[in-house]
Specification:
This protein is about 25% helix and about 30% strand. The longest helix is centred in the first third of the chain and has 31 residues. It starts with about 25 loop residues before the first helix and ends in a 33-residue tail after the last helix. Strands 2-11-14-13-12-15 form a six-stranded antiparallel barrel. The protein has a four-stranded antiparallel beta sheet with strand order 3-10-8-5, with no helix packed on it.
Length: about 450
């Protein structure tokens, strides 16, 4: 005799005898209530989403519009009592017109004055016979001997000079044409030596002594300091090869980088004050001599050259420096820098109107100083703006805007929304068929009244 086992899904209705159409068991009611609650919450969420989508493109009802914010700003006017202003630190300042002065600073470096740098270059091939200035950094005077050079070309040129001299003496009593030709030949031989940088006094010495000199001494064309000396005694040197580089350091350049927004304030001839870490406590004055015409695309800066006198040669090329100059902006509208709230997308100030409200307004700013900023558009002279705690006022304005939007969406009064924004929302309890919609007392399980 076989036994048949009837399986019934957990929580389904039926009587004890297994009648599926009988009254549901007590556990079935609990599952039904749970399913009904989930369905109710889903319906509420779907309804809120549909209403929000419908309300986002429709204008708010006229009866729920509690103040108009500036177009696109999303902020609302703010009204604060004197006590509230004092508590959050709100102060006011007028929109004033006047000049703005700011200091422009630049990190710089000392370098040579290129107009005071000379290179000593022989114009003939030869050999360095002797060095009179033999190390870098040595100070030289103008006309001081640098080195002696032996050159076959110079020896041949001296021989031609002496031959021309003797020819001039021999034809002194001849025809005028012969005398003139001999003199021209002598002058030509003399000029050749001068063109090869042989000093005039040495040429005259050859003519006076009638002796050919094996070497010729080259001298410094300027007074300064030797900053480069690649030449060595005994080496062969070619025409055009640099033997010495000499710089006059009595005046130096300071070259710094000025950022692009500060370039309009820099002008040639402007006074500059420079400081040097190597000379603490000292200030040096100079003037802007040149502004380079190109801009570095990576750093967005342009080089500015400043000329500075260098008595006693205390400033060394390569020293770090910092220079500053005053940038003066003509008569402009300006407000305290703390009055402008910069968000990245807009610049916002709060203007106090005649009845004390703080109205948000977008402005266009220009150049600024450490404590003030230029206003290009958005304000007029004489208006009063919030000068401090602007961020807190903006937060209050945005809060009012958000509450107003919630009130317009839900249909409730904006004032009531603001007053109740800190109260917790009532919990929605989905009602089941036959339920009273009242939460049961603690300790008593919820049940179906019909069953009870």
């Amino acid at each position: 005799m076989s036994e048949t086992t009837h399986l019934r899904p957990l929580g389904t209705g039926g009587d004890a005898g297994g009648n599926p159409f009988g009254p549901p068991a007590a556990g079935g009611y609990r599952h039904l209530r749970l399913l009904a609650g989930v369905a109710g919450l889903a319906a509420l969420a779907l309804g809120a989403y549909v209403l929000a989508k419908a309300g986002s493109g429709a204008p708010a009802a006229a009866g729920h519009r509690h103040g108009a914010a500036p177009a696109g700003s999303g902020a609302m006017p703010v009204t604060l009592s004197a006590t509230e202003r004092q508590r959050i630190g709100v102060t006011f300042a007028p929109v004033a017109r006047g000049p703005l002065e700011r200091l422009v600073r630049s990190v710089a470096q000392v370098t040579y004055d290129e107009t005071r740098v000379a290179r000593v270059v022989p114009r003939v091939d030869g050999y360095v016979e002797q060095l009179f200035v033999n190390y870098t950094g040595q100070a030289v005077a103008r006309g001081e001997p640098l080195f002696a050079i032996y050159s076959p070309m110079l020896v041949a040129a001296q021989q031609e000079l002496l031959l021309a001299q003797r020819l001039t003496e021999q034809v002194a009593g001849g025809t005028p044409d012969a005398v003139q030709g001999a003199r021209e030949l002598l002058e030509s031989a003399r000029r050749r030596l001068l063109y090869w940088d042989v000093p005039p006094e040495e040429v005259d010495e050859v003519l006076r002594t009638r002796t050919i000199r094996r070497t010729v001494t080259l001298r410094s064309p300027v007074a300064g300091v030797v900053i480069e000396k690649p030449v060595l005694a005994g080496q062969r040197i070619m025409a055009g090869e640099v033997a010495y580089q000499i710089a006059d350091l009595s005046r130096v350049w300071i070259e710094g980088e000025v950022f692009e927004p500060d370039l309009p304030a820099a002008r040639v001839g402007q006074a500059v004050t420079a400081e040097f870490p190597a000379l603490p406590g000292e200030e040096w004055t100079g003037r802007i001599a040149y502004i380079y015409p190109t801009l570095d695309p990576e750093t967005r800066t342009a080089r500015v050259r400043v000329e500075v006198a260098n008595p006693a040669l205390r400033l060394k090329p390569g020293m770090y420096a910092t220079f500053r100059f005053t940038a003066r902006t003509p008569d402009v509208l300006s407000v305290p820098r703390s009055a402008v709230l910069v968000t990245g997308k807009r610049n916002l100030v709060f203007v106090r109107d005649s009845i004390g409200r703080l109205l948000p307004r977008e402005v266009t700013i220009g150049r600024g100083t450490d404590d003030r900023v230029e206003i290009l558009r958005g304000l007029t002279e004489g208006e009063t703006v919030v000068a401090s705690a602007t961020f807190l006022v903006d937060a209050e304005s945005n809060l009012g805007s958000a509450l107003s939007g919630m009130a317009n969406w839900s249909g409730m009064d904006a004032t009531a929304a603001h007053q109740g924004h800190d109260q917790p929302a009532a919990q929605a309890i989905p009602a089941l068929p036959g339920s009273t919609g009242v939460r049961p007392p603690p300790g008593r399980p919820a049940g179906n009244p019909a069953r009870e």
